[in-house]
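Take a careful look at the protein record below. Let me know whether the structure tokens fit the sequence:
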Amino acid sequence: MTETAPVRTWTCVVAEDEALLRQALVAELQRAWPGLQVLAECEDGASAVEALAEHQPDVAFLDIRMPGLTGLEVARIATEASPRTHIVFVTAYDQYAIDAFEQGAVDYLLKPVKPERLAATLERLQAREAQPDAAALAALLDKLGALPKAAGAVEPLTWLTASAGRETRLVLVDDVLYFRADQKYTTVVTAEGEALLRSSLRELLPRLDGNTFKQIHRGTIVNLKAIAGIVRDDSGRGTVRLRHRPETLVVSQPFMALFKHM
């Protein structure tokens, strides 16, 4: 009697910052592919990185534009944090050069996601058994990263209004060494001291220049210009030394991939 080979169970992570769109995509995935296990639903790039490192899913559906780390940055980190994961980008922006996706080894879905397009993408995924081509993904990410910003993109913040005791301070964003999550608020740290910003880290992320400020931990964003050095320990985590402050900052293990090409 011939034994039947076990059916492979596929797993995925979904990262989309808009809750309704995220829920709709998960519902469509469950309808189109009932056997697909959704291991995590993420609302920003940082949580997506952590989910990829923890779960090592077969597929990651990544919104390109998310607070903090973009889908492109998450995909770049995934090549180290979860190299077996196939990437599917989800985007509402046709200027992201659909021909670049068509020529690359990465699938994409345009918002709103159409059932027939999703079905075709899922069919291609199920036909793939090999580990993703990291070199092809890196080439595509470089190409996409060089494209112009979306029309109507918000200009990065220049000044912040923060409080230190009873004093209200105007803080030049370029002077900020790092931001630290403080419950519902954010601590702003400069060479001169600390102040409190009355908004969450997640609310602040979309307004910062992503070329200068990088999230290195769920609760920490650092100014790259303020870094004096980075040390990796035996566990894979990193420690950032700052130019003008004595304290050090912890870099979560998955986020160390951000510094590989710097």
User: Anything to note?
Assistant: The chain has two domains: 11-145, 159-259. The domain at 11-145 is CATH 3.40.50.2300 (Rossmann fold). Helices lie at 19-32, 45-55, 71-81, 98-103, 115-127, 134-145, 201-204. The chain has a mean pLDDT of 85.
